[in-house]
UniProtKB/TrEMBL annotation:
Oligomer status and interactors: Homodimer.
Name the UniProt record assigns to this protein: dITP/XTP pyrophosphatase
Enzyme class, UniProt record, top EC level: hydrolase
Taxonomic lineage of the native organism: Bacteria, Pseudomonadati, Pseudomonadota, Gammaproteobacteria, Moraxellales
E.C. number: 3.6.1.66
Originating species: Acinetobacter junii
Role summary: Pyrophosphatase that catalyzes the hydrolysis of nucleoside triphosphates to their monophosphate derivatives, with a high preference for the non-canonical purine nucleotides XTP (xanthosine triphosphate), dITP (deoxyinosine triphosphate) and ITP. Seems to function as a house-cleaning enzyme that removes non-canonical purine nucleotides from the nucleotide pool, thus preventing their incorporation into DNA/RNA and avoiding chromosomal lesions.
Residues annotated as catalytic: 79 (proton acceptor)
Cofactor note: Binds 1 Mg(2+) ion per subunit.
């Protein structure tokens, strides 16, 4: 397989202004050791795109095209969130603004707990899954965005546990490890998370 053309362009814009995501991606990209500079869009004064898609895939593409258009560079975007089947997939694409205010993790977690409280049955776990979709565009009007999707399954706790991570990590329980996502180190999380899985698929596309 030939080297992707965008790797020869010197830089790749990361279409995110979320500090938690940027920190995780920084670690993940370091492991890939790509011959390009990864530039968070904030360093280019690029504000967040208007996410008006109805799916993770649509929103990831919207964000990647937005960053690519304003930077003139290839761009990769992440759209991710928590899906809880018993809530019809909510919070889903609205995970970051579930309680109404974008990025208010505490309020979002409280709303999720409140929504699930009347649905809980003793002895039964409530399933949830973190979803990450990465979209890579070589230019703003790229007709063939590359899509990489990772899914991380777990359960939703009744109360927060752990101090690490961000978003819904304190409520995301991993029964096979007997810890919450927020009790994992950054390295441990990146090994098994939805974002880590999507990045592994991205890495495989480069080989």
């Amino acid at each position: 397989m030939s080297t992707p053309s965008w790797l020869n362009q010197g830089s790749l814009v990361l279409a995110s202004n979320n500090k938690g995501k940027i920190a995780e991606f920084d670690h993940l990209f370091q492991q890939l050791d790509l011959p390009v500079e990864i530039i968070p869009q904030g360093k280019l004064n690029i504000e967040d795109a208007i996410e008006d898609g109805l799916s993770f895939v649509e929103n990831a593409i919207i964000k990647a095209r937005h960053a690519s258009k304003l930077s003139g560079e290839p761009a990769i975007a992440d759209d991710s969130g928590l899906c809880v089947p018993i809530l019809g997939g909510a919070p889903g694409i609205y995970s970051a603004r579930y309680a109404g205010e974008h990025g208010n993790d505490a309020a979002n977690n409280q709303k999720l707990l409140a929504d699930l409280a009347p649905l809980r049955k003793e002895g039964e776990a409530i399933e949830g899954m973190f979803v990450c979709v990465l979209a890579l565009v070589t230019h703003a009007e790229d007709p063939l965005p590359q899509i990489f999707q990772g899914i991380w399954k777990g359960e939703i706790l009744e109360a927060a546990r752990g101090e690490n991570g961000f978003g819904y990590d304190p409520l995301f329980w991993l029964p096979e490890l007997n810890v919450s996502s927020a009790e994992l180190s950054k390295a441990e999380k990146n090994e098994i998370s939805h974002r880590g899985k999507a990045m592994q698929l991205f890495k495989a596309s480069l080989i």
